Amino acid sequence: MLSAALIFLSALSTLSNAQVISGVDVSPDAVWHNRYHAILSMAAYNPNYDTLCPQQTFTQAGLGQSFPQSTSQPWEVIERFGPTEHGAEGFTVIIPEMDKVVVVFQGNYGIENHLNESSVNLDQALGLGTCGNCTGNAQAVTAYVEAREATNNWAIAAAAVERTGHQWSLAGHGFGGMLSIIGSIDLGWAGRVRWSHNYGAPLTVNGPAAALYQSLFQGEAGETGIANGDPIPYKIAESANYTRTPTLFYYFGYNATTHMNMNVCGSTSDPLCQAPQPYNETDRYFYFTPVGQCGGNIDRQNITAQNQFIASQSSAFYATASVSATGIQSFAASSAVPTQSAIPSDSAALVSASVSGNAQAAVQSSTSSASSICMQLGTLASSLAIVVAFFI
User: Fold this and answer.
1) DSSP H/E element including 323
2) pLDDT tens readout for residues 67-126
3) DSSP H helical ranges for 220-358
4) Which of 96, 215, 309, 380 is the most buried (most CB within 10 A)?
5) Is residue 351 part of a domain?
6) In which domain, by residue range, is 133 found?
């Protein structure tokens, strides 16, 4: 692990000219903690994540630098799950450099763009017995419960935490981020999961559920990340049934140290953490690394690869979608992948994830094509109270 002093100096240099903290204490380690979970969420879209990530980021050399005496593997996938009937899919991995066992939920283009906004009671669905007026998105809850059943209530992940002493964390992008939120409430209330991360996720739960989430993951232990002009976090409007979970992080631009600048807001309505309009769908598929990549030196937007991923996912969804008389959209599994010849060589490993099978989603009006976003961002500076934390 990097020494606290080195982490402090590195983060201080970066944060002093690239980050605004508003109403919440965030340690310098949180920059790297958040980035690692974000790139795992991007890597989940690539079926070859198991070979890609230990090549690009979670390397033997990196583990040796942080933990010279470690004899552990730097990367060990211990379980894969899904796709379930309602779209849950992902993997569980042990990453000693992070001191984590991480469950990563994959996003789903079709579901995210045709979300059903109905909700269900979380006490009844998850068996919490503690928040009678907590509700969550019905499709996300259903998909999460399917994944919980498929993994025997995360038995393999729990055994790995017990065996290794690592901390348990959840992460996901888009619909995967929604599942991360639901899973974090479920496993956080049970005292099993300590860290919770979601990126580019639509609103998932109501106010009481968000308050419960905050009580379980106070401060930087619970992260909701939005990057640049990503439109999907705003797909579902704020209402009595839906609000955003804290703590809210807004990622934008680029810097050489952390690869994206960061605003961190104590309030989910803080304008510093709202994506400027017009939104840009291409931005959706870059969270510290392009979709299908796992970080490392691939830390800039790859517009060609990101747009091709969008096109492939859209084609796969609409090629298999059907509309019933009741207005319910159903779609079958598809093995369509983007044409590799159009992807630059540094993203040659990128292939699309198949659209999860037999999921149900309400048909909404067609979204307009996203236009390019141009943000004029001045230099951000602030006086920071930096708290050096122990994790990662």
Assistant:
1) strand 321-323
2) 899 899 999 999 999 999 999 999 999 999 999 999 999 999 999 999 999 999 999 999
3) 303-320
4) 309
5) no
6) 4-302
